[in-house]
Design brief:
The complex is a heterodimer of chains A (314) and B (508). Chain A is mostly helical and 314 residues long. Chain A is built from 15 helices and no strands. Chain A is globular. By secondary structure, chain B is an alpha+beta fold. Among the domains of chain B are: 165 residues, no CATH class; 94 residues, Rossmann fold; 63 residues, Dna Ligase, domain 1 (2-Layer Sandwich), CATH 3.30.1490.270. Chain B has 16 helices and 23 strands. In chain B, the strands form six sheets. A five-stranded mixed beta sheet of chain B has the order 3-23-22-19-18. In chain B, strand 1 and strand 2 form a beta hairpin. The chains are: A mainly alpha (314), B alpha+beta (508). At the A-B interface, helix 1, helix 5 and helix 6 of A face helix 3, helix 10, strand 7 and strand 9 of B.
Chain lengths: 314, 508
């Protein structure tokens, strides 16, 4: 027996923790990459980050330009940005607090500890690098504590579904924004192109995995890995597989069938990622493909909500 | 050397404190001190703990104190203060010196409280039933029916097993002049604080394990189990395992931590109003796979907000239709609706009469003398002595709406004078009781100082007998000289120990 509200909270704890973690990763990798780049390209390289988080409009209402300071300010702590890392952690903690009787004490204390930790870093004026490090470590610990202390019931699958859906959408967006910038962007960025692709791979922790398979950095290989590789835990395909599995566990429907619209759309997207080749995707246009994938993720989220969390009672 | 958690939150021990003995220069003063006698030597029941503390260097004590605070912070055991309009989380300060009660004293308290809780239940059953006590003129009808918390909707409604007050938190104080325990007020609606009793014990056991080896402290952690048993026994459906839930107003309620804690300890669902729905006078909760029937609600939502169709229409935390389900006998509520007519501060003055009337016994625990401002003779006395008295609004709790005559300025006193004249029924007055004190650590001076305390034991009534976990919540007024112990007014808490001792009790 699981209350809809509790399932909702677990789903969003997963999403917010994942969002905080992903934002910290892209912020951190970009910062370190730029330490060795010519300063006149800074602006061009910070802007995509703001785009990835979907916050461009609000950002430029506040700041004239995107640089390490404004990006950190806005994506790290800002209260005006509902998707800033600090806000995500606050919301994850609020959700955990409302259901603390349903999660392990360890999980609550872990999320609560992370909240106090980032407050402390802010109060001490700690810089981007140590802040992102704390959030990333927090993300790893979160997954570890969940794995080691939560019962594998329906709640577990809502949490997992939240993480997987968020991660799938985030990876698709990271790829989309960078591809657009690096392949179709201004000439000035060309010389540092492979550095930038390395940064993208590092931001999703896929650099070492990539290097084992390819000696050169090629955009289509990077896209292949991030989109279609079933082995890497941050690829879109991998995460839609996790999502599909959890949705089936919740509804009890057998593989190959679906019990609701969320399952149907997840299954269809997963099929496409399994059987489409990267060349086909490029032929049809990578950007369109990624846009549609992100839209599908949003629709799946809406259907999960309608089916399990906010249904009407007659 | 620091532990990972210490490092995480940055605990620093003040370098200047050194090894000064904690009780150096401790002066119990003229008030009754729960820990040491008038000559400054520890009372027999406190001797073991006193020796442990007295031998402990200040820096060691300070480290333990900070670790204890840290454990509350890490667990998020905080309450919310709304003074700044935004609601900030604060730790409820915990003082490491326990309040120790010898067994013979506890036996008296226990019997006195049991008697009181039984009488309150008989009274409520009577008021919402035949009203014999009004016909016999033991208490004025007008006083009862003018109570803010009297619920006409409850007249003639049969509550499960005739229990109205399942959980009662009664505030006791010890009068320094006589050494006697007095009842200060009853909390028969949704008393809070039991989670602190259980957590304080947990922290104390970890912090002063050795003290528990040498003192025979009676356990408290069976409370959730006892409460769970009573709640399950109320189910209107027979047979299979009843579905019991705890209804909370939500995250922003100051007692939210406690709601989570109790739900978890009892293994019941913690629900908010929006999780419940009433269909054809039956209460259900919304789950991911549809509706599940609910049998018993341990509600921590006030009457006013319980059902927007029956009470306040603007309530967002209630369940529309709940009162209809209650009237139809399809749901049990604990505590029952309308129990506020028993813990109203004006009704309080009559509780000793209830005990005589319903139980034909003399009250074991005395009340504090109380002036009812609704009585003209009392009102005129109160108005003449405002600067000596404590004035309380009858329907309020938590230390709000209160005048402390001796420490109030002229303007506040005049303000209360006007309020009393305008609405006398809404006020009572009591003499200031010189509360007993207990040593408490003052972080500002790094010394033990005597601070005033009260005691709130938690009584559970199952329709036949009253169960009380030994001890309760000792609240301490941490400000020097203050007599106000409420958490919202700068109070803290202590672990309360009842020692096993001799069961025969008083004159053994």
């Amino acid at each position: 027996m699981m209350l809809s509200r509790i399932a909702d909270s677990l789903f969003w704890i997963g999403r917010y923790m994942e969002r905080a973690d992903n934002t910290a990763r892209i912020l951190d990798v970009n910062y370190h990459m730029l330490l060795e780049q010519p300063p006149d390209t800074y602006k061009l390289r910070w802007d995509p980050l703001i785009a990835i988080t979907g916050e461009r409009t609000r950002f430029y209402q506040r700041f004239d330009e995107a640089n390490a300071h404004t990006a950190f300010d806005y994506l790290g702590y800002s209260e005006d940005n509902p998707n800033s890392i600090a806000q995500c952690i606050i919301l994850a903690r609020e959700n955990a607090r409302t259901i603390r009787d349903r999660i392990s004490r360890e999980l609550w204390e872990d999320i609560n500890g992370l909240y106090h930790k980032i407050n402390k870093l802010r109060d001490e004026g700690e810089g981007l690098s140590r802040f992102c490090d704390a959030v990333k470590r927090g993300g790893h610990r979160f997954h570890g504590v969940c794995d080691a202390t939560l019962a594998r019931d329906e709640g577990w699958h809502f949490l997992l579904a939240g993480c997987a859906l968020e991660r799938a959408e985030m990876t698709a967006r990271i790829l989309d924004v960078h591809y657009h910038q690096l392949v179709e962007g201004p000439e000035i960025l060309n010389e540092a192109r492979s550095h930038a692709w390395v940064a993208v791979l590092k931001s999703v922790a896929a650099y070492e995995f990539y290097k084992r398979q390819h000696s050169h950095i090629e955009p289509n290989h990077v896209a292949q890995l991030l989109l279609l590789d079933p082995r890497h835990p941050r690829s879109v395909r991998f995460n839609l597989g996790v999502l599909q599995n959890s949705l089936h566990a919740i509804s009890g429907s057998v593989p190959g069938s679906y019990a609701n619209e969320a399952e149907r759309l997840t299954g269809r997207a997963h099929e496409s990622l399994t059987y489409d080749s990267i060349d086909e995707i490029f032929t049809g246009g990578l950007h369109d493909y990624l846009e549609e994938m992100q839209a599908t993720c949003r629709t799946i989220g809406a259907h999960i909500s309608q089916t399990y969390l906010y249904y009407a009672v007659s | 050397m620091s532990s990972p958690t210490q490092a995480l939150l940055g605990i620093h021990i003040r370098p200047d404190v050194g090894g000064r003995p904690l009780f150096e220069g401790y002066d119990p003063g003229t008030f009754y001190d729960e820990f040491v006698g008038p000559d400054g030597t520890p009372r027999p029941e406190s001797a073991a703990m006193h020796d442990i503390l007295a031998a402990m260097p200040l820096d060691v004590f300070e480290e333990r104190r900070q670790l204890a605070d840290l454990s509350y912070l890490v667990q998020g055991i905080t309450f919310t203060v709304y003074s700044d309009g935004r609601g900030t989380e604060r730790l409820f300060p915990f003082d490491l010196v326990p309040r120790i009660i010898p067994r013979n004293e506890w036996d008296v308290i226990e019997k006195g409280l049991a008697q009181r809780v039984m009488a309150l239940n008989f009274y409520l059953q009577d008021i919402y039933g035949k009203q014999r006590i009004l016909k016999d003129k033991v208490i004025p009808r007008q006083l009862v029916q003018s109570c803010k918390h009297f619920r006409r909707e409850m007249m003639g409604l049969n509550v499960p097993r005739d229990i109205y007050v399942h959980i009662c938190g009664t505030d006791l104080v010890r009068d320094s002049r006589t050494g006697e325990y007095l009842v200060l007020e009853d909390n028969a609606r949704s008393p809070s604080g039991i989670s602190y009793v259980l957590e304080n014990r947990l922290v104390m056991r970890r912090t002063f394990a050795r003290a528990f080896e040498v003192s025979e402290v009676m356990p408290v952690d069976h409370y959730p189990n006892e409460l769970g048993k009573i709640l399950r026994s109320l189910s209107p459906r027979s047979g299979d395992r009843p579905v019991v839930v705890l209804l909370t107003p939500g995250l922003y309620n100051s007692a939210y931590f406690e709601h989570c804690f109790l739900a978890q300890e009892m293994g019941i669902e913690l629900v908010e109003g929006r999780d419940l729905v009433v269909v054809d006078d039956v209460v259900y909760m919304k789950t991911i796979h549809g509706l599940t029937r609910v049998d018993v609600i341990y509600r921590r939502v006030d009457d006013d907000f319980l059902d927007p169709l029956a009470f306040r229409a603007d309530s967002l935390v209630g369940v529309p239709g709940l009162m209809n389900a209650y009237r139809a006998g399809n749901i049990a509520l604990a505590n029952a609706v309308g129990t506020g007519v028993a813990d109203d501060k004006a009704i309080y003055a009559f509780v000793p009469d209830f005990i005589r009337y319903y139980l034909r016994e003399e009250p074991i625990l005395k009340n504090v003398d109380t002036y009812l401002c609704s009585r003209p003779d009392h009102l005129s006395y109160v108005l003449d002595h405002l600067s000596e008295l404590v004035v309380k609004a009858v329907g309020e709790s938590g230390g709000y709406g209160m005048l402390m005559g001796p420490s109030a300025d002229k303007k506040t006193i005049e303000d209360f004078r006007a309020r009393l004249k305008a609405d006398p029924r809404n006020y009572i007055a009591q003499p200031v009781i010189p509360l007993s004190r207990c040593p408490s650590f003052d972080p500002a001076t790094g010394m033990m100082s005597p601070r005033h305390i009260d005691l709130r034991p938690y009584c559970l009534y199952d329709g036949e007998k009253v169960t009380i976990v030994p001890g309760g919540l000792t609240r301490v007024a941490l400000q020097k000289g203050s007599l106000v112990v409420n958490s919202s007014q700068g109070g803290g808490s202590k672990d309360t120990w009842v020692l096993r001792g001799n069961e025969e009790g008083i004159e053994a």
